[in-house]
Amino acid sequence: MILLETVDLSKRFGDLRACDDVNFTVNKGEFLSLVGSNGAGKTSLVNLISGHLKPNSGRILFEGQDVTFAAVYERIKAGIARSFQISREGKIARIAALADHILVVVRKRRETFDVLGRFGLNGKSSVPAGGLAQGERKLLDVAVAYALRPKLLFLDEPTSGVSTREKTQIMDTVSSVVRAGAVTAVVIEHDMDVVFRYSDRIVMMHEGRFLADGTPEEIKANNDVANILLGVPLSA
Prior knowledge:
By secondary structure, the protein is an alpha/beta fold. Helix content is 38%, strand content 26%. It is globular.
């Protein structure tokens, strides 16, 4: 069942086509990875879908409803949420206690601790966000978005800047939580080991267009993907 669909979605910045007639579908319940080199158009696509950018043309349909020009809060209410890097937020966010980041979203203390518990952060509820280890801050970043009770959750590089061991811990937790909560997830990720391990489906963007769309096995066998992402065939 299709949860989200874009139809000929385009966004231009001057002569640059960040998204060029993109036709994108996300199926209900899947864990999808969106990959591509820097400047491929991944973040622009997510910003268009989440309402932080307005398209030049095309449509965005969520559960069959046209949300192309809906406000951000309307999309959140409908069930579309995305994570942001806490390290990029202001000083107040960094000094606020962990629980306060969730509480401001859910407004209920019991539910706050339930969300923190799902991500293994209950024991750090009174710790300022700025005092967390990088991996814990990544989990908090996802937990804040998850607390909005989305149907579709976009995760922006949840494993960037952490060790290989932490990447596995983060993705094991995130994958377990979203699947248990029947949340559809789209992950922007550069680490292809992470992508291949956790994804049901992988979509690759290149120069504002889709280059490939398939299962991890199909993407591994795609030479165009290998040449662009790795510079060598995946079988080498």
